[in-house]
Amino acid sequence: MYYAYKYRLEPSDAQRKELDRHRDICRQLYNHTRYRLNEYRENHGELPSMTTLRSELPALKKWWDGLNDVYSKVLQTVVERLFNNLSSLSALKENGYGVGQLKWKPPREFRSFTYNQSGFELDKKGGQTVLSLSKLADIPISLHREIPDDAALKQVTLKKEPTGEWFATFGVEVDREPPQKPDQPKNVVGIDVGILKYAHDTDGHAVESVDLSDERERLEREQRNLSRKEHGSNNHEKQRRRVAECHADLKNKRRDFLHKLSNYYAREYDLVAVEDLDAKGLVQLDGNSRNRAGAAWGTFLRMLEYKCEREGTHFVAVDPAGTTKECAACGVSSEKPLWVREHSCPSCGFTADRDWNAAWNILSRGIKQVGAGRSESTPVETALPTGTTSVPAKRVLEAGSPTLKERTASAVSE
Ligand SMILES: [Zn+2]
């Protein structure tokens, strides 16, 4: 299995300059190669082979001094990536898709370069963990979580964010198969991912979305300040960075929350059922919050899916149509406007909170889809009493811990 681990680098000012210099040499090589490929195609009517292209690098180094300062595999990766992108573009074109050309990259748009297979290692220097990069530097790195012992480091990508911070993302291969998924999942859960609130699940947890209002306010304030600065001035550039930092803060906080939430479900259960992205539900929101909710939802589903894979947990995304209308106890559908928070079945009399009823429907669809044949558990004896008690996101943030269940359970009965 292949994983990515991302860490913050803490380069000195001198190292920061070196990183930027290497990045810029890679950028120039990218632009040069792009030009070279287009020229070749005009003369020969097709792209050169990867081997031809790679074999040109040594000759290039004879007159282009800067190239010799960069680790050779890093340069190869620049050329290979460009080549691969261009070939897939050409393939699209041949199949009749209208696609643009690869563009010349200005410094701002070329943010990363990659050490592949060799030329990098993690090391200790004077008690500090450093990322040792051939022909570049030993850069202090903050390893806030461990890379598994049995993992092989395949590559590392160094990237400069618009905030000016540098990050290293390791591509890591672990030589073990993901655990088997159980034929008869015992510990199962359905999650109703609300659009505005966060999640309700069939075990009675209600998880509120993380509160980002302070961060949003700050972002708006900094954006207003930016609009008052003179374009191209030093102050403008400084303020632009501050805005980028705000964007990064928001994104990190949201991602962190989604990581923890998805981790929790993937670890605690044998089967996790969620609704597939519900385009119809999203349409009810206005543009901005629709994009935000849609993006967060998609991210959550992707995280949940790969984490379930890793933990040997069934992941099922079910058809979202009608999950709130259907009665989880008898299956009869009844219309419910959005403001009706309680499900009360006209046919069998079952009552439950609207979102919990939905979660139960999601779970039984999920179980059916996996074919696990364990849908006889009716919600009636397990569903919680009507009346939602929301659990603040803080509780999830503290968790990933096995005590989350107890804590939330007591919070619900309070
Ligand atoms: Zn019913």
From TrEMBL:
Spans annotated as Disordered = 209-241, 371-414
- Domain of life, per lineage: Archaea
Tell me yes or no: is DNA-binding among this UniProt entry's keywords.
yes
Provide any one GO MF term from the record. Answer: metal ion binding
Annotated Probable transposase IS891/IS1136/IS1341 domain ranges read 173-284
Q: Name one GO biological process term.
A: DNA recombination
Transposase putative helix-turn-helix domain: residues covered? 1-41
Residues of the signal sequence? none
Q: Where is the composition biased (Polar residues)?
A: 375-391
Q: Report domain Cas12f1-like TNB positions.
A: 297-362
Keyword vocabulary terms for this entry: DNA recombination, DNA-binding, Metal-binding, Transposition, Zinc
Q: Which family does it belong to?
A: In the C-terminal section; belongs to the transposase 35 family. In the N-terminal section; belongs to the transposase 2 family.
Question: What's this protein's name?
Answer: IS200/IS605 family element transposase accessory protein TnpB
Originating species:
Natrialba swarupiae
